[in-house]
Every structure is written in C-alpha cells, then in structure tokens.
C-alpha cells in the first residue's frame, strides 16, 4: 500500500523527518526536527511517501519568501529536497506532482527547484525535466535553476553578485542554517580539519532569509564554507578533504 503522509506538529514527534532517520538520537536529526517545527506556520510542507508503512522517500517545499535557497521570484513554491530510496516505482514523480498540485491550490505562479550535478545534496535534475520543469538559468559551481510555471509569468532568478559575496570573508567562515541535518556533521569535519592546521573557524548561523539572501555564497543557501575569499565547499567534506582544500589556500 502506497501512502503520502504530511508531517505536522502532531505527528512529527512520533514519525519524525525522513532525513538522517538512521540516527534519530543525533544532534543533526534533533536540529532538523526542531527546525521543521518552527516552519509549519510559514507554509512549509514535508511529505513522506510510505510503502507498506515503511518510509520510501520525501519532498520538502515552502513559499519562496521563507525558502532556504538563494533565489528571487514572486509567488512561487521552492522545493528544498527530494529523495527516494526505492527507485523504479515513480515515487519521485508522485511527490513532485503533489507539490505542483498544491501550488495550484495555493494560486502560486509555479514551482522552483535548484539542482547541481556535482553533489547529491541537491535533487537530481533529470526527474524534474521528466516532469516538465524547464532549466532557465545557471550559477557558479554547477548550480541550475529549474521552474514549472502555470502561465506567462515573470521567471525567478539567481543573484548576480557571487564574487562580491566571497570578498567579504578572508578568514575561515562557515555559513549555515539547520534546514539540513547533515550540516552539523559537515561543520564538525571542517572545524576538525582546520584545527589540525591551526586555522580558526567562525560559524555564522543565518538567522533569517534576508541574511541568507545577502550572505550565502551559492544558491544552495543553507551551507557554505569560505576561506581567503574562496569557496571551500557547499556540501559535506571529510576531514581529509577539508584539510586538503584548506592547504591549497594557505
């Protein structure tokens, strides 16, 4: 039996989010659940697909004015995450269609998703192209902006000042939110690597979308590591990989 289950304040404690579900006692998992609790009143939706009462995937999306992605636009829903662990059954398309239909019910202009072929931290572009999304713009470091619009409406768009953003940070700086439970692990790995090189790291916990839009070094929004005005990473690195990247800039 296939069922789509929408998380809410009542069932979140019992069922929890799908992300990092294998480590329900981890700090990242707790942070993610707490982050979700504070977002329901903003219109965030977190939908799990259940296959015979077992989680098989999920989609998370929210109105653009509360999104954790650095993208501009009016009256869109933004998909943060889409992931399924059971392939070949159309679950990803089912979740995407759920979001599209919800956007129509809410009288939105359409749905946005940001992809990047260089990392698994963003959804795969192919399944969105299959579901009639159109790629309309690209940004540095491999980011792609895709949209599904409901008419001849203004396109969403990326910021254009990516280089200027990097110039603000000469010291090792980690910018993050708790939208992804793996951010905690990613942060720890960079700090451990930096400590071995006697490099001090500063953590900036982005407090709202306004700050995220202003400071994020990539469209991904929720995590970025900068050192000597260079982007170190926007996704999790191992301690060894973090050290290697930092050494290149020392």
Automatic annotation (TrEMBL):
Family matches, as Pfam families: Acetyltransf_1
Protein name, entry field: GNAT family N-acetyltransferase
Domain of life according to the entry: Bacteria
Gene Ontology molecular function, alphabetical: acyltransferase activity, transferring groups other than amino-acyl groups
InterPro entries: Acyl_CoA_acyltransferase, GNAT_dom
Keyword Transferase: yes
Residue ranges constituting the N-acetyltransferase domain according to the UniProt record: 1-163
Family annotation (PROSITE patterns): GNAT (PS51186)
Protein keywords: Transferase
Coiled-coil regions, chain positions: none
